[in-house]
Write a structure and sequence with these properties.
The complex is a heterodimer of chains A (162) and B (301). By secondary structure, chain A is an alpha+beta fold. Chain A contains five helices and five strands. Chain A has a five-stranded mixed β-sheet with strand order 2-1-5-3-4, with helices on one face. In chain A, strand 1 and strand 2 form a beta hairpin. Chain B is an alpha+beta fold and 301 residues long. In chain B, 33% of the residues lie in helices and 25% in strands. Classes of the chains: A alpha+beta (162), B alpha+beta (301). The complex binds flavin-adenine dinucleotide (FAD) and FE2/S2 (inorganic) cluster (2 copies). The site of one FE2/S2 (inorganic) cluster (FES) has 10 residues of chain A, from loops.
Chain lengths: 162, 301
């Protein structure tokens, strides 16, 4: 079946079996290996991408269902070879250990920056419930997301919390 | 993890979908958040899928008279964010808010959740307490099923071959609501679920409704507790014995996440705390919601 979608601003098209999961379409057909497969059971969030602007788990959607949509993956964050605000904030806050969860975390951060003016630490924790970090580096990850807010929106992003 | 292969259809209206489903070979797919994992594990292997994702008429949220109509394909997150629902039935938004995580809520739908009827689905006790009705369509007819008759047991509903769940109808409840979801991690399926609706009129509890979920029987109203407390002063102690009796009769899910007896205790404690919190709030009315710390305890008018 034909699937045609816009991914990171580029129109792509391929003929696939209906049972192909979106995450495998992205990784194996479109050869964008940034999106990770962690659990493949819909729990870990490593496969998170934005579909029409909203974070979803791409292992929980068939590629054919994404026909006609607009997808953003972690590869779509950087501009002209320069790291994006989110990526730089993750680097500067040591928010990466093994890096497995990072693409999902980064895509989620992009969504949060677009959606909210500011978020408290507690709210950030709430929003990333669906993104597991198996290395459990959550403190640095939340620091990085807070920092990304600060960088993107000025000093407003910071709120107190544990 | 690859599901076995299937044919895929994406109709743009309800009639087309019903036609495709009529031969019994096809299965509807809504948000896929329950069906896709089942297919990946090959617990189910439908020969064909009918994607309801592009049927606009199933996505509406509207108020018709004193009834809120939520289309089957409205997602959990749309329920959380809807201005109409926030005003009409905030307890529904609270219920949706504690489903899974943001990614799941962005895909999963109210219709899919009801049709799937996981015993621990968040909506079940809330919709029972709200005395909601489910609109079911087939190529020939449209019927309305009260929530009390819709869920027959775990993963079992009143839906028949070839029928689709079209919408959920929720009558207005002019009072407040509290939902409690007890789970190990917040995003996990519930060990215990309780929804309480109530009105306080001149210090007296009115139209109290208590519904419990995560049961092997479908959601259940605690009618005896409701009756005991209705119209009286807010005295949780007065209901404790009845509550004990009624909870002892419940048949909670009994699995590796929690045994039945443990879950009964969870439910007992949740209800008891809800009532105590309510009683504490009695002195400063209108402030009742402030008596509750944390997320599960927030109230909606
Ligand atoms: C990680 C994770 C955590 C979750 N946590 C929770 C939780 O805490 N609480 C909770 O309640 N749920 C939870 N869920 C389940 C989630 O709410 C699902 O969205 C929901 O159970 C199914 O809705 P869906 O739209 O995804 O349906 P689908 O998965 O597409 O379908 C489910 C079933 O319903 C049928 N169906 C779908 N729509 C219709 C219709 N309109 N008419 C007739 N039949 C239909 C399908 O054929 C299928 O059998 C979780 C899921 C995941 C993956
Ligand atoms: S790989 Fe998709 S949620 Fe884990
Ligand atoms: S950095 Fe290893 S899983 Fe998060």
């Amino acid at each position: 079946m034909k699937v045609k979608l816009r991914i990171n601003g580029e129109e792509r098209e391929a003929d696939v079996e209906p049972r192909l999961l979106l995450v495998h379409f992205i990784r194996d057909v479109l050869k964008l290996k940034g999106t990770h497969v962690g659990c493949e059971t819909g729990h870990c969030g490593a496969c998170t991408v934005l579909m029409d602007g909203k974070p979803i788990k791409s292992c929980q959607v068939f590629a054919v269902q994404a026909d006609g949509t607009e997808i953003i993956t972690v590869e779509g964050l950087e501009r002209d070879g320069k790291l994006s605000v989110e990526q730089q904030a993750f680097v500067d806050n040591f928010a990466i250990q093994c890096g497995y969860c990072t693409p999902g975390m980064l895509v989620m951060t992009r969504y949060l920056l677009g959606k909210y003016e500011k978020l408290s630490r507690e709210e950030i924790r709430e929003k990333i419930h669906g993104n597991y970090c198996m290395c459990t580096g959550y403190v640095q990850i939340i620091n990085a997301i807070e920092d990304a807010f600060r960088r993107a929106k000025g000093s407003e992003g910071k709120e107190t919390g544990s | 993890m690859y599901p076995s292969n299937f044919e895929y259809y994406r109709p743009s209206n309800l009639n087309e979908a019903l036609e495709l489903l009529a031969n019994g070979e096809c299965r509807p797919i809504a948000g896929g958040q329950s069906l896709v994992p089942l297919m990946k594990l090959r617990i189910v292997a439908p020969k064909c899928l009918v994607d309801l994702g592009r049927i606009e008429s199933l996505r509406t949220i509207a108020i018709e008279g004193d009834v809120l109509k939520v289309g089957a394909m409205v997602t959990h997150e749309e329920i959380v964010e809807s201005q109409i629902i926030e005003e009409f039935s905030p307890v529904l938004a609270l219920t949706a808010e504690s489903i899974g995580d943001l990614q799941v809520r962005n895909r999963g739908t109210i219709g899919g959740s009801l049709a799937h009827a996981d015993p621990s689905a968040n909506y079940l006790p809330t919709l029972l307490a709200l005395e909601a009705e489910v609109v079911v369509v087939s190529p020939l007819a449209r019927r309305v099923v009260p929530m009390a008759d819709f869920v027959k047991g775990p993963y079992t509903t009143d839906l028949r071959q070839g029928e689709l769940l079209e919408a959920v109808m929720i009558p207005r409840y002019r009072g407040r609501g509290i939902v409690e979801k007890f789970a190990i991690r917040k995003a996990d399926f519930a060990i215990g679920l309780v929804t309480m609706l109530y009105k306080v009129i001149e210090g007296k509890l009115d139209d109290l409704r208590l519904a419990v979920g995560a049961l092997a029987t479908g959601p259940v109203r605690l009618r005896k507790v409701e009756e005991k407390l209705r119209g009286g002063e807010l005295n949780p102690k007065a209901a404790e014995d009845v509550l004990k009796e009624e909870v002892a009769l419940l048949q909670p899910v009994d699995d590796i996440h929690g045994g039945a007896e443990y879950r009964r205790r969870v439910i007992f404690t949740l209800v008891k705390r809800m009532l105590e919190g309510l009683a504490r709030g009695r002195d400063n009315e209108g402030q009742v919601e402030d008596q509750w710390g944390g997320k599960g305890g927030r109230c909606g008018a």
